[in-house]
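Appendix B: complex inputs.
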Amino acid sequence: MRIKDEIGEFCAEGRIGLEFMNKRVIPLLDAQENIIMDFDGVRSMNSSFANALFANLAKIYGEKIVNRLVFKNIRDNVKSEIIGGLSFGLKDVPK
Amino acid sequence: MHRIKLPKYGYLYSCNELLDKFDLLDGCNDITVDFSDVEFYDMSSIVILLAKLHILVKKGLSVNIENHENSKAFKYMQRMNFFKICGINISESFSRHAPAGRFIDITTIGKNHRIDTGKLSEEVADCIAPDQKELFESGQTGFYDGISYSVSELINNVIQHSNSYGFLGAQYYHNDDSTQIVVADIGIGIKQSFIESNSPHASQASTDPKAIELALKAEVSSKTHGIYAVGGAENAGVGLTLLKDIALNSGGIFLVISGDGCFKNNNWITLKNSYQGTLVACSFKRSNLNKFDELLEDAKVKNRLTIDDVSIFSAMFE
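Resulting structure:
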């Protein structure tokens, strides 16, 4: 998935993150596909988007999400937001 | 008829005092706002004054402004679109130069106005941090990223919670290396947002200061429950919490006003006159915001928003 094409240069809205998760990501994960997300050209992400997409995915799939998603061509600030979102989602998930 | 003489100066740090000038309006149907003493208002003060005037009109008051064309701040306020957004069209005696590196014109956001958070946030960052616009290497764009991040979270708040519209302003001040970002909406306010969304926190948000305090608490939002969580919550309730810590840890100012509650740099003040909406204004030192990634990470750790060992995610990044 090329995130710049799907979302844009700045992933900034929780509403869009949630819609992307429900319409594009979950159907693939539930079909047992692993997903490569390519962030080439994505400049920024905020916490609203990261929590709507990645925290919710972590809550749904638990630690198994770690083996289902791969991220490439990623800026440090975007990487930090994704880790923040995943971490936030896993915080209250029982191991 | 009630007459309000605006003070000579208006600064972010004294915005609550500016709003207190609108005290004693109960029972009056029309007011005149006198600009004759006005000499300098910073971006936050202009946006807050603009929002307050809109609130008064929304309440049905007839608002007249007077002596604005003679005030020393007239051209600056005109350049920021203050009068235009007040519905007063005055011909301009100056040329509009590109504002790159300094400010954005005040922009109306929210219901029936701009809601394209990502694009608008980047437009603001392009204006305030044009020197970092074309850079892409991590570590070189902290100021740009910090501006776009902060603006986006504030716009999202208006869209999600105000049920109305508001005004966005931003300016960089070379003299003290600070950047102000302000968003003032004329919506339902924080307390009412908890009530109208049937939030489980509504009973704790019994006063405006308590509602602000809750909104600043990590993982509390009026919209993380019930119908708002079906298919996953789109709001984790961390936006304002993180922004407060980023602003204060960057040597700046953080202000939230809603109803009669005012939170300013960790201090609480009660307004004489209720502000019927929500406003958030913050400032950052540019030199410190260049380390935006560190400031954001520190804020997340402080608010316990991460797990202890994030090394489990390492294999996910190619």
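Chain B touches chain A at residues 117-119, 121-122, 136, 138-139, 141, 145, 148-149, 152-153, 156, 160, 231-236, 238-239, 242, 292-293, 296-297, 300, 304-307, 310, 312-313, 315-318 (CB under 8 Å).
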